[in-house]
Fold:
Amino acid sequence: MAIDSIGEHNETAPRGRAEVALIGCNHLTAPVELRERVAFTPEQALQAAKELCQSGTIEEALVVSTCNRSELYGVAEESDGSLPDALVSYFSEFHKLSPRELNGRIYQHAGRQAVRHLFRVASGLDSMMLGEAEILGQVRDAYNRALGNGSTGPVLNRLFQGALEVGKRVRTETEIGARPMSVAVAGVKLAERIFGDLKGRCALIVGAGGVAEQVVEHLRMRGIGELQLANRSYARAQELALRMGGTALEWSALKIALDQPDIVVTSVSGSDHVLTRTMFERSMSARSGRAICVIDLGVPRNVEPTVEGLYNVYLFNIDHLGEIVEQNKKAREAEAPRAEAIVDEHVSKFLAWQSSLEGAGLLEALRSRLEVERQSLFAAHFGDVSRASEADRERLEKLTQELIDRIVQLPASRLRRERKLHRPVEGLAALRELFGLADSDDKEKP
Amino acid sequence: MGIDVLALALYAASFAGYALHLYRDRPWSGRLATLLLILAIVAHYYALLERSRAIHAIPYDDLYGSMSLFAWLLAVTYLGLETYHRQRAVGSLVVPFVMFLLIAAVVAPSNVHHELRTNGALFALHITITVLAYAAFAISFLLSVIYLIQNRGLRHGRPGLAFWRFPALEVLERMSRSSVWVGLVSLAVGTALGFVWEHRLTGQFAIADPKVLVTLIVLAVYAIYLAIVHAPAWRGARAAMVCACNFVIVLFSYTIVNVYFTGFHRFF
Structure:
């Protein structure tokens, strides 16, 4: 079932005090060794959610698991605050971890804090790289899977739809995800600043560093035309060319190879400069002065620094790229308060909805209780038909029914108003207690 | 005056949209800015039309008419470039110039001393096409300056934050080239029409007039720009520098020559 197909009917069904809670660990609380152990595959996530729902105490459950976090979300009806503990207990059992191994690594949130946590996660505010875009897709996938599996209900549906909405708003209304945050993306973006569209352009990759591979990946995503790969070992160049989908070049052909590409990425280990000023001077003449973007990812540098002075050669080394990433990081951090404000707005919205849901449940219970009392009074006073005419009885029934409607009408309209204002209704638990509307009170009825 | 103010308000709203588009990268604000610019151009056109009807000629004799016409053609040329190159980022820099010229036109004294000899469709075409050329050169100047600033940031590996929003260097160069082509062709046609009109009126060609000489120089320097823009030693920043410097001659022709030197182009 797709997100859009969820009907309003199941979201507004009256219910009691539903508590949202989550437990989990992320890159801030657990080292990668532990995160690896507590990660859920998509199948395991569905299995875990199903088992939690079958446990009896939890009505709705969902698992969010990415490379940086594993989190269990649960909703319990009439919770007494033990939901987070139940989730932790299941989490440790599922992953066969002792409490000692999880000690201090797990965070637990309930109510407002749980809602706020999920909304911050979906917005990229809780990510290792502030404002990262992938997390929103991962939350969406986790939700869609759980939805298809039937482990979500009205509360988690509303909560996760809210999270997706917050994530989308934060991305569109703030600059938190606007600028490149990795060296590889920064390099590719700089090339785009020179050439515009990279479709059909030619790139030469010299060496085989990990970052260079990331650059290639991003170049491919932008539709780079031709990819040439050169390595000191031709066999390695061929292997890379096969893996990355390019053409292998002999190391000795490097001098003339500079005549063609628009972008050159170097990532070679060694102390000598692989590409020298002389090589570029010759190639610039051969390429009729056509601009060339050189991204030097090597430390020590692979490209002779004086190349920077050549006309139409744009040389960027690892420090340049690092500086851009740092500058962008600060720009993203400056956007965080605006993103937090959007999160807060949606937290209030969700809590108001949840409170109105609880309020509606309470009113429904109150109406039922009054109806029972009404029926009971009628049975006691008008059980004998001779004591009142049929017309009188009908009029009295109508009157008492209207009285109940009037009693419930005012709180119902106030509840609607508070919901519209995104304000949670306070003191519902006290009212429930006062009117004896809790499930356990049913047994105390006369 | 009323339509002028309406046009100005629409230009201001369009500028706000372009600025938001540049600052926040919102596609909807860019589209809205373009729509508002079109409306501003239409309103501005009616303001010029009203003026033309009042003086029975294309408004160019006074500072108001000249500046307003220039501002309008600047906006029209930019809109054409934006549509052709699908680039809105430069709008936030062009529209303020249009607004400045229109404000100057509105507050400037508008004492019209219209000469009857400057009537007629041919003369109107000569003026309009020539002012269009100046507007196109002004945009190419602006694009070249942006190119040079961006190029400097890239050469030093320290691009500013706004840098990520402006068009790429090659796109800026293409836009500048298109603009120069528009300007060069318009100026050549406008000058030719001017010669024809003058010959009809006086039976001779005033080749030696400073305005004509400077115009021929302008044609020559922009033709040189188009010739060197693909040359190995000049393509890129050097060509952009040439384009920017060329505009100094245009400004000289449009202001100093018109006011102090020419014998028959003594209007703004």
